[in-house]
Structures
1.
Amino acid sequence: MQEDWNIILSILDSPDKSIVGQQRVFSSSPIILGREDNCNLIISDPSVSRNHSIIRITSDYTRVFITDMSTYGTEVSGKQVPKGRGSGFTLNNGDTIKIGTTVIRFELKLKSSVKSTMVGESIDRSFLDSPPPPETPPEEISEFSSPKESQTLEETKKGLNPIYIGIIIICILFILYLALFSGKS
């Protein structure tokens, strides 16, 4: 089954010049970066820990984050990533990840079918920035209102709620039942 997303990691700079320019495409999470043979992206840089960093994507594809598991540190676009499990740092498209002296570019590619279902992608949120319209006070009915005005007000009050009608019908049927069958013993 093909995933709805791909993470592309491109090596921009490294002491191991043989890997510079390489791209790796991943479609499963987590992605482990480090020197160890069991890592998903093996980086032969002496300043990279065996299991240096872990990249994860959330199940709804709204966030990708990196966790620094190293002793040497990890930077994302010049910002230090907090160390240890449970301390994820959000990655954005085009961010550079520096582990040791190796620099990697991060990209997330989503299928168009996933993009169209993303919450908040193409929603106009400008209304959130504008103040609410002023409320107009309800019109007060004065003793001197014209008959036409009071008639329209009465017409709007006449409508009965269907729940009330149902309750009235049930009560009438119950009274009829009691009247017809309560006298027979």
2.
Amino acid sequence: MGSLEALVRNWPGAADLSAHPGAFAAALAHSEAASRVGPVKTVGDRVARAGPGATPVDLADGSQDLIVSLMSLHWANDLPGALSQVRRALKPDGLFLGTLLGAGTLKELRAVLTEAELEARGGAQARVSPFADGFDGAALLQRAGFALPVADVDRVTVRYPDLLALFRDLRAMGETNGLAGPVRPLTRGIVGRAAQLYAERHADADGRIPATFEIVHLAGWAPHESQQKPLPRGSAKMRLADALGVREQTGEE
């Protein structure tokens, strides 16, 4: 909400592409920006929203002033393609705000499951869905055609009594492994060994285990002629060394 509150403009056409819509509208209702944002419409059915980019987004090109997608884009098989669809649906100078899970999510779980399965079977399958690197967020937006891209990363640590409690929470969130293809089930022995490794390496003094969730925040604008643009290469009128008041080091001395 901070981004919308800081921007003094109106957003009459707003759409929510989140798999679980409603959170944005609820937060907006208590925000200073509420009077400047029109009714937020939910786009598509839940299946379409849970698989961003798998089907064309149900929005006309250039029709929206604001589009949000909260905690859904990490399920996209083609993230740049999904972002490109969002950009096409925005009016010129329209704004996209999104959040998704990043590569650091569940790093502890990924490591112990891999090690436990390697010990038991001599090989391991991916047990945690892959996530985009949060530091590549701005580049992904730029690749999709957004102007003035911004990406930021928050890391949240959630503590659980044990590994099975973490599994239950992931299932309740709908964030279990969704990779396609045959998956060999984990045995009780592998899960038990993973729980042991998790506790040995990560448990706090009270015995609870931490799980990292990396949340990537994205913001990008549909291009418009009024937006600031970088000057052409070679058009500078002052050397950087002069601006900083330092002596230039050319490496040729």
3.
Amino acid sequence: MNTKPSSTLRFLERNEVFTLEEYMLAVDPDVSGRTRYTNLSNAVRRGQAYRIRKGLYASNLGVYRDRVPNVFLVASKAAPDAAVSHHSALELHGVAHTPMRTVYYTSRRRLDDFETRGYRFVRLTPPAIRDDELSAFVTRARSGDSLVRVTSRERTLVDCLGNIEAAGGLEELLRSLGGFASIDFDRLYDYLTLLGSPSAVARVGWALELLVEEWGVDGSFLEKLEGHVRRGTYHLVRSQGTRSFVARWRLYVPADLPYQEWVRG
């Protein structure tokens, strides 16, 4: 018994990006899995869909024909635990200063980088925090017609400061952070507490001092963070250039850069 081809086509007309599992569950469950997979393979052969990576597909039918798929949706479906992160999270939250063609996401699964339609997808390892605790710092943001898993504003801030390269560089990050209207300081503190990293606290404290006016940062919150900074020294970026030492946060930062100008966008 063959499944009706129109069932596969209707699925492709409604689903821009999908996993093999989503397809197999949605299309003609009364027929064999082998038949369903054959129909998807035939759709790929006819150019009605294409494989992005193993187990992940995009439609090339109807409104989706010959267009770049929703790259944030692609990243969020790259693995069951995937969440858009770092600079891509800044883009999805609507504050990135400059769009990029590298899309970052976190997942505990070891996945190789992959490319589709001129975009490169890069997996980053999430923090070593229990999944049930980490999930509190993943939210959903609208991207086109879809709701996509993305790191929260507070986690995005911390993660980007911990990986400046994946944030698009220091200037790009600071110009982007100024686009956030506000930050939930309680949630920010909760995430920093889970990380248990004095260096993360130092980086965040330094950034918050730059954004005091934009975000209305209370001095008592900065003092609270300062209490978590240890006697060691920390580095914002690994650089061989001239650096300045910010004593309050025991943090070395690149010297002679217009940080205040950058945070104003």
4.
Amino acid sequence: MAGHSKFKNIMHRKGRADAVRSKLFSKLSRDITIAAKMGMPDPNMNSRLRLAVAMAKAESMPKDNIERAIKKGASGEADNMEDIRYEGRGPGGIGLIVEALSDNRNRTAGNVRSYFSKFGGQMADTGSVSFMFDHLGEIKYPLKAGSADAVMEAAIEAGAADVETDEDPEEGGHTIYTAFEDLNEVAEALAKLLGDPKSTGFVWKAQSLTPVTGDPVRTLMKLIDALNEDDDVQNVYGNFDISDEDMEALGL
């Protein structure tokens, strides 16, 4: 099916241009804090913290905010925060993975369950959806980083697993995938070849996409929007494919 990458994408991630800036910084701070809590407060000695800090810098988060978030995690203020993953089915049988960071598991689970129920979906057991996805490292560069061939060559040299280039002048860019355990090594190698990336992190990439058309498209978008608006939800991934025509019908 034809469709722009932002509509076809297997991921709807918070922190895009339409997000409220203060809310974005709040979520980035939580990522940094939990990373500092789980390891050393030095990014050079803590790969998860290094990725969280890199993501924050890519979004122009002030240095003071980053340092404050690290100190909060190192001091134990985030001891009750935990990563949680939920899986479910949305309208049209679409598989969805929801990643959350919460200090109250019961609250977050109740909220996520209510969104699925309200918008034609259903929560599922852990593993019943994620088996249709690959958990990978993802490194993004803008188109100006180089031609598709140049980025591909750099990615191969750095040890990446795959590269996808979208030539759309507004929404396009280079997306480089790595094995989960290779992300840090590949990101550091690419930085020497292409400069600092636009973003770096882990994603759930669908192994195949499922077309969604008609009324289920509107309901699916409402479900994803509701999940993304929840303060505890960090990322939402799905295996849907929606055409331009259906998105335009929604005014998107």
